[in-house]
Every structure is written in C-alpha cells, then in structure tokens.
Amino acid sequence: MDALATPLTLSPPSLITTHLSNPILRSSFTQKKTQFTKPNINNNNFTAIHASVSSKSTSPPETEALDQDEKFDWFSQWYAVMPVCDLDKKAPVGKKVMGLDLVVWWDKNESAWKVFDDMCPHRLAPLSQGRIDNWGRLQCVYHGWCFNGSGQCKLIPQAPQDGPPVHSFQKACVAVYPSTVQNGIVWFWPNTDPQYKDILTKKKPPYIPELDDASFTYQVFHRDIPYGYEILTENLMDPAHVPYAHYGILRTPQPR
C-alpha cells in the first residue's frame, strides 16, 4: 500500500538527455559561380516578322447537348404486319397493328405486297372483305371500286363513261402505307404522309440474320392477344409458370 501511495516523480525536459549511437554527419557545400558573357547583338542584322493571327477559333466545335425531353415516336418506326407464309396472293387480308386497321394484298402488276388503310373512301367499307379482280386490282366488296398498287382509283362502275373522270379525284384514293418484305415478314411504316414515301431508303426494318440462315430452324406463328407488349414480354421472361399455367399443353417437366 505504501508503494501505491508513493508519488511518481518525472524529470523536467531539460534534464532528459538522448544518446545517439551514430553522430549526425555534416556536409559542407561549395557554390561555384558561373560567369555569362552578354552577346553583342546588332539590331541591324535582324528583320522584323509580323505574324498574322487568324480570327477563326482553332478549338474543336462544341458538342451539342442531347435534348433530354425528346420522346420516342411510336409512329416513326417499322412494324411487322404478318409473315408472308400466312398470306394469300388471291385474297386481301385484314390486320390491326398499332390501332390501325390495315389490309394486306398482293399487287401482281408490281409483284409486291401492299399495305393500305382498310377503308374504302366511298362508303368506308373494309377493303379486306373485297377481292382481287382480273386485272390485279384491289376491288371493294360494296360498290366495286377498284384501286391499283399506288392507291389510285382506277374504276368506278357507277360513273358514266362519258362523264368527268371522277375516279381520278384525290378523294377517291386510298391511303397507302410504306411497306416492304424482310426476313419473310411484311413490314409497314404507320404513316401515310407523302414525305415518308421513300422512308425505306433512309431507315430499314430491324434485320434478323438467323431467319435467312438455312442452318437455323424456326417456327412462325401469330396470335391476337388482348393486352400490350409489356405484359407479353414479362410473361415470356417467366419460365417458372410454364409447367403450371400450360399444364397438359406443352411438353414440360411435371410439376412437383
């Protein structure tokens, strides 16, 4: 207990000495002065050169900022209508895509599939219920109006032959959508504005090289389903539902 009561005594800093095992070496440096001789410059031996400064900026052009408010235009894209294998060259076929009623038919005069607005300009009858006449024109089932591959009316049976050419009027034409065939599928551009007539030369449908490769095997089918693409995509990415929701329909492992 006496040892614990004994106060601890510290030496002041001035009394604490430190012994170094190796002494500190001191080096002496000698600075050598260098003398420079001023050259004898004769101003008469020099010619003044005036540099011309260009007013044009040499800096790279500024990158334009992207418009963050730019929205996706759903009606400025190519859309698949139907596979060619499901079409009949002898009869028009109706289809609804992007909320648009379409009619797809084979124009033998131009050897191409055409996509029209499925509505006759006369009485708005669906052209998909019509037929292809002997001259390869799309004929309306209601009053027999006939249209060529450019949408022009070529015949109005009720119009007098010696009367005005009413079939050539602009209001007698059918709206035509730009269309093409790629990967065995008919595609269309959902805008009938004349400025998109040659849109195929500027923008093409998405190309799937495997569909044109003979070494690949695939199956084409289509169904009309009463919901949007986002629900279908989510469904296709959910394989866990297959053995239960498609029980007895698809060849899948039996659910436990």
From TrEMBL:
The record's GO CC annotations read: cytoplasm; membrane
Q: Where in the cell is it found?
A: Membrane
Question: Does the record bear Transmembrane helix in its keywords?
Answer: yes
Q: Which keywords are on file for this protein?
A: 2Fe-2S, Iron, Iron-sulfur, Membrane, Metal-binding, Oxidoreductase, Transit peptide, Transmembrane, Transmembrane helix
Q: Does the keyword Lipid metabolism apply?
A: no
**An example molecular function term from Gene Ontology annotations:** 2 iron, 2 sulfur cluster binding
- Segments forming domain Rieske: 79-188
Grouped into one coarse class, the protein's main location is membrane
Gene3D superfamilies for the chain: Naphthalene 1,2-dioxygenase Alpha Subunit, Chain A, domain 1, Rieske [2Fe-2S] iron-sulphur domain
Protein name (record): Rieske domain-containing protein
